[in-house]
Amino acid sequence: MIWTELESELAALADKHLLRTRKTLESGCNTHMMVSGKSLLAFCSNDYLGLASHPLIGQAICDAVKRWGTGSGGSHVVNGHMLPHQQLEEALADFVGADRALYYSTGYMANIGVVPTLVGRGDAVFADRLNHASLIDAVQLSRAEHRRYAHKDMAQLEKMLAASDAKRKLILTDAVFSMDGDIAPLKELFDLAERYDAWLVLDDAHGFGVLGLEGRGSLSHFGMPFHPRMVYVGTLGKAAGVSGAFVAGASTVIEYLMQRSRSYIFTTASSPIIASALLTALELIKTGESRRKQLRALSQCLRDGLSGTAWQLLPSSTAIHPVVVGGNEAVLKVSKALMDSGIWVPAIRPPTVPQGAARLRISLSASHTLDDVKRLTDALREIE
């Protein structure tokens, strides 16, 4: 039977310790979560500023339901673009310093909407080897040539750009790499984009809200103003604590995306409730320096707590702190040992990370306390 092939593939994943499982939360997103009746101290969420359960955002949702109802009723380009969507786009553009912004339902939809709209057959995309899966898929959908350079290797990237005779060129990178926690060299990338007349598309899913002045993102972190060749993607389901994403850039670029981006045009607009919630979240991000300061203190506590141990904690100036273990079975055992002690840290395995580089992905939230982090480092020291 045809489905037996699927059964064989699933069995092979299990043999390699690559089978994914889901846990059903019995509580809201927070630093302490209920799973199967057990309270767990969680270091697995991208809720970096602790806004996912913020009461002001909840109140904004309640108020929006009374005024706007629940659904948008149609695509943005038909009848689904409502006042909260427009206000959100204007607020986001102003926040990151761009001419305009376009709101998408998810970060994945934003990425697969941007790249195939800007490049196609006969063009070339130059992508960091550690880019997120949505960026990889976006290139494949574009049908442009896909050239991958070694992680943050600017010399290799320049050689590729210099040797390319593609009609249009596009440099594509995560701003903050989701499984490593490091930041792309944005100034050097922009210089190369200028030199070789290329688009520069930045996915700042894990930098928006966390890095830069008032959390304005990775460009702000480096003191870089917007330029017409830049296209900026920000995710709103992580530090912003809600859902969705946006693309910001020059007016001409955003207008072109609105006219041609398939994942924007051919889908129902998200609920106006979400847009209203995000307007409140954006204000909390602007005034959230104490939360970002707490993240920095927690990061230092984590580094200090694992100093002198055998754990391979990768260097990171963000809220993402990977501990490389190596083998798939080994990292699952460590993750289970932590779970048994009431601490949830996910085991990340291929294909999300390279073979032999399975890791614990420790995600910090401003809602964590120093005692929470100490509990984690003490547990890891015991397992060591």
Order of helices and strands: HEEHHHEHEHEHEHEHEEHHHHEEHEEEH
Q: What is the total domain count? A: 2
The CATH first-level class of the largest domain comes to: Alpha Beta
Give me the CATH superfamily of the largest domain: Type I PLP-dependent aspartate aminotransferase-like (Major domain)
Average pLDDT for all residues: 96
CATH topology of the largest domain: Aspartate Aminotransferase, domain 2
Task: Tell how many strands the DSSP assignment holds.
Answer: 14
The share of residues in extended strands comes to 15-25%
- Shape call: globular
Number of helices: 15
> Which CATH architecture of the largest domain would you pick?
3-Layer(aba) Sandwich
Summarize the biggest pleated sheet.
7 strands, mixed
Residue runs with pLDDT of under 50 for 5 or more positions: none
Helix content bin: 40-55%
Radius of gyration: 21 Å
Secondary structure class reads alpha/beta
Strand order of the largest sheet: 3-9-8-7-6-4-5
